[in-house]
Amino acid sequence: MSASRSTRHQQSHERILDAAARAVRRAGVAGVGVAEVMKEAGLTHGGFYAHFDSRDTLLAEALEHAGSQSNARVRERMRARTDAGDSPFRALVGEYLSEPHMDALELGCPVAASGSDMQRSQAVLREVAKRSVRGLATLVAEALPVASPPDSAWAVAAALVGALQLARILGREGGGNDVLRACRETLLAQYDRPGSTA
Q: What is the count of structural domains for the chain?
């Protein structure tokens, strides 16, 4: 394969992964169809097998891709908040439990978007999902004040994901914003008290 053809192949692969990652977040693992993903990527259905062995291979890579994208996006937005004076924990909670994140079904956290699908999925997908969950817990652990109780990262990660899921179910008009606000205030009151250190 020539260098230019290899570059085109890689660019097409990335477009497919981007489209599939959005589809997983939007419709869950069960709702992702190969034909729709390829159409959204601007490619023909027939070209799918030049990139992936199976739908499960696509889904596993798409979940991994979605996790990397989400992690990078949250870290970037946290950095903007910490540069403005927020503690790392306040920045994380404020970003994760925000209205834009609630509304961003196609770009948000894949753990919140597809968590309930994973218990019924193939083992390879569950392994990717486990890495995403651990990645979220690591992000939380890095943001928590040093003096936080042991295993706080798991409790906070579960609260973040659960609050986002409930808020999305309720929506803006049904009280989703209230769920986000209540969880933000509770987490900050518990873990971001004056005098705590990051």
A: 1
